[in-house]
Amino acid sequence: MTQGLRRGCSLITALATLGPVGKCPIAPGTAGTLVGFAAYFFLCDAKILLDYVYWMTCLALPLLAVPICHAAEKSLGREDPSEIVLDEFSVIPLCFMGTLMPSRISSMEAAPLLAWLAAGFVLFRFFDVCKPLGIRASQRLSNGWGVVLDDVLAAVCTCGCLNLGWRWFGWGA
Questions:
Q1: Torsion angle (degrees, nearest 10) of CA 62, 65, 66, 68
Q2: Which residues have C-beta within 8 Å of that of residue 86, sequence separation ≥ 6?
Q3: What number of CA atoms fall less than 13 Å from residue 147's CA on the CB side?
Q4: Which of 12, 85, 113, 119 could cysteine-pair with 71, CB 3.0–4.6 Å?
């Protein structure tokens, strides 16, 4: 029984750290974010992620990440350890809500698409690392909510900035 529990904890920890990604010696959160961006782009480009599935994904991934991150925190014996990167990975679709929707990606040229992805990456990492606008306070929540909510808020801020650029400045044209 104990061995089965250890295997379960190992699986949870592997999910929360995205396997070896969370063990990246330098900036594991950035590595998790890069994997999230790559997965998002692949799913959109391969037309696996349709717009209506995208909306469900935006809600479901962070909600699924909460109990997984909480269990991994308990397994690792620390609050919000840096090797847990599922929180960053799970919120990437939120960054592009209203801008780089799956239906738009297929019709975009490579250069503007890469520029949008780069802008989203830089903005998300800024909001995730600096935690302005009260984002830091969200980390005080317990049971995995604080681990994920700060990233949700960073993604919402990123989404807001990208939407401003997309709509008001014509960057999406």
A1: 170
A2: 15, 16, 17, 18, 32, 65, 68, 69, 72
A3: 31
A4: 12
Residues 6+ apart with CB under 8 A from 148: 62, 65, 66, 69, 87, 90, 91
Q: Where are the beta strands (DSSP E) in 31-93?
A: none
The answer to whether the CB of 86 falls within 8 A of the CB of 15 is yes
Q: Write out residues in the chain with pLDDT < 70, as ranges.
A: 1-9, 171-173
Q: What ranges do the domains of the chain cover?
A: 2-167
Q: Which residue has the tokens 């990167």?
A: 85
Q: What is the pLDDT of residue 153?
A: 98
Copy the structure tokens of residue 108.
Answer: 């975009």
What's the number of CA atoms in the CB half-sphere (13 Å) around residue 74?
13
